[in-house]
Design brief:
By secondary structure, the protein is an alpha+beta fold. Helices cover 63% and strands 12% of the residues. β2 and β3 form a beta hairpin.
């Protein structure tokens, strides 16, 4: 059995802030869009169907939380995933969601009214 590790309260605050940042469907879509490539803010906006201004807001929040990195090239800003483990974590949570939905669906089929 692993020994219990004492985690400072500040770490929980930071963790909650990152989870809160990811608790937005457009931001999850941005992560999926950037999973293996770098794109400009404009390209991201077009791919997920939002305005450039709205995309810029989401991208700034994600960059400030350390989820994305950005670089400038001329007048364009390009974004990529800062740490590939973010994509892995999102994929794991998606698996949990699908397992949950399958379980619910299975229970619904077994229930007769």
């Amino acid at each position: 059995m692993k020994p219990k590790i004492s985690i400072p309260k500040e770490i929980y605050e930071i963790h909650a802030g990152i989870c809160q940042c990811l608790a937005n469907p457009k931001r999850l879509e941005i992560i999926n869009t950037l999973r293996d490539k770098e794109l400009s803010a404009t390209e991201i906006a077009v791919k997920i169907g939002i305005s450039s201004a709205n995309a810029s807001q989401h991208l700034a929040i994600m960059r400030n939380k350390g989820i994305l990195r950005s670089r400038r090239e001329g007048v364009s800003a390009y974004y990529s995933i800062a740490n590939p483990k973010v994509v892995i974590a999102c994929d794991i949570m998606k698996e949990v969601l699908f397992e949950y939905l399958n379980e619910k669906q299975s229970l619904t089929r077994k229930t007769r009214f």
